[in-house]
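Incident log entry.

Two folding requests arrived from the same account within the same minute. Monitoring flagged them as a possible duplicate submission, but the sequences differ. Recording both here for audit purposes.

Request one:
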Amino acid sequence: MNNTKYFICDKGYCSSKIRNILTNKNIVPIIPYNKRNTKDKNKIIKLTKIQKEKYKRRIKIEHIFSHLKSNHKIQNRYEKYINNYEGLLYLFFIKRICNN
């Protein structure tokens, strides 16, 4: 069984420091290369076909965060106690799972 851990994120996290930290912890970074201020085209790191497929699945997580932010009670944490806030999160995810 493949126990490889991946770190999938957008171009905002593209830095050699982050990539080095992840590889030292045996985590495979799937981060598209940010081309800003890159004069040498040979330094651009391209994603493999398998990495591109994994990166496409990231949109599901982005949609969940979008729905979380649209719910004002969860976005701003109006609850006084953390247990109540966690309960709201559980209810939100149960609702998301049941609707799909």
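Request two (distinct sequence, not a duplicate):
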Amino acid sequence: MADFPLPTVHLNGTGRKMLNDDYTAAYCALQTAIRAFQSIEFHARDYYTQGVDAFTRARHHRDTQLQHLAGVQHYLETHLVHLGE
């Protein structure tokens, strides 16, 4: 069960196919974005001139951003499962 409202498909609302197509397109675009984000060169050599803890702070921030993307992924997946029922 989702901890957020999911759309109800009914005669006066958006059709299931359109919703499914839109959430699928967003999911595919997100997967592309996640792969691109993970492919960014990320190395301590680019941070050492900023202090001893700069790379650790940068890694923490990067990991936080990946967690946010994972949250969006979960949101989209939950909708897709719901629409498939």
